[in-house]
Amino acid sequence: MDRSVVYEMATKVLARLLLPVAKVREPREARHRAAQWALGLRFPKESLEGLTPETRRAFEGARTEALWRDGQLIGLTSGYRDAAEQHRLWQELGNRVLRPSESEHVRGMALDVRPTEGARWLERNGDRYSLYSRYDNEPWHFELAQRRPERQPHPGAAPVRRSC
Ligand SMILES: [Zn+2]
Predict the structure, then answer these.
(1) Does residue 159 surpass a pLDDT of 80?
(2) Ligand 1 mean position to 129 CA, how many Å?
(3) Which of 24, 47, 80, 117 is most buried (CB neighbours < 10 A)?
């Protein structure tokens, strides 16, 4: 069996096992808390530090629902990046990456998520949490926004407008 399938099953079992502990700690937020604990163990390298409180709340809320309702795990590949890190990426990768002044990652309002199925779940359900994908070439990239941003083929491109 694929290791990621085993990890996925283990994470769901773990979330259930952690639920009674979470109930003691935070009775009204137990499912939320247990989901974050289990996902934190599944994706140990992820960091939610530096996200704005609203972005973090939206992401945690979305993945709690994904886990308990649909059994879908969502991990964070990259969230907040400081300007120096974004500048380094921009220099390394050129115009596939936005400059620090343009990047929502630097503002703590962008999320690169994984795995692919997790990104698909967020694409279908993210609007309830004000999380939207934006770039055709980055299906893993989501941003917190008040309404759905105009789609762009890639970062730095002009928005795609329908001509009439
Ligand atoms: Zn991104």
Answers:
(1) no
(2) 17
(3) 80
